[in-house]
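Input/output pair, single chain:
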Amino acid sequence: ESCFIERNTSEQKVTTSPHLRFEANPIDNFVIYEGFVVAFNKEQRVPNYTIHRITPEQLQENNGVRAKRSNYFRVDERLREYSAQRSDYYKSGYDRGHYVPAGDFVYSQELKDETFTYTNVSPQLKELNRYGWKYLEAAIRKKVLICNCPAYVVTGSLFEADHKTIGENQVGIPNQLYKIAFYPDSMKMYAFRMNNSTEEYSGSLQNYQLTVDELEVLSQEDFFEKLEDADENRLESEIQMIN
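Output:
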């Protein structure tokens, strides 16, 4: 299932995306990729948030072939004037931390490579990116495989007034990052928030859970608006344990 394309004069205009199945925001609010969409913050030069769908098929090898991790980050030419650059991260002390993980695309080299764009990363300290964040991504994938069902994942940035920047382009460093994972087949929803700091991962994802309602207040966003009101109100107001 891919984005639907329609001709609009001489341009190709994307009119919908499978990743936005439960979102009401106009598609023009997003930078569209095949494997995900990005609500991009041009001022901070990082995502406000990303949304992507994970299916069990994405996590399977393609006839025994696994997509390789490239580690080559590129600038999206559509946003070049707003994009971070390699030089901004060089010797900054920060990782280029993915929002949509490369590990969610085992079966497709093209889609895995697509995640290595500066519109899909922000400065993240290794204590977050290589530990707690990595374990959270793995837990979401594991649940997709166990239930053999898709998940819709929102990943976003939270900035405080005194946040810092890196590089000549003053790339914003999020104070915190968050994820929401929704499994429509089982009607389960999980929300997490982690500090972008040097603190050690506690060893339990439960310590980082909160309600979607709480996250929406912090992010000033409204997610999953296309759910039935009763379902949205219930799912976003409760905490369900993922592990």
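The CA atoms of residues 18 and 37 lie 10 Å apart. The longest strand covers residues 46-54.
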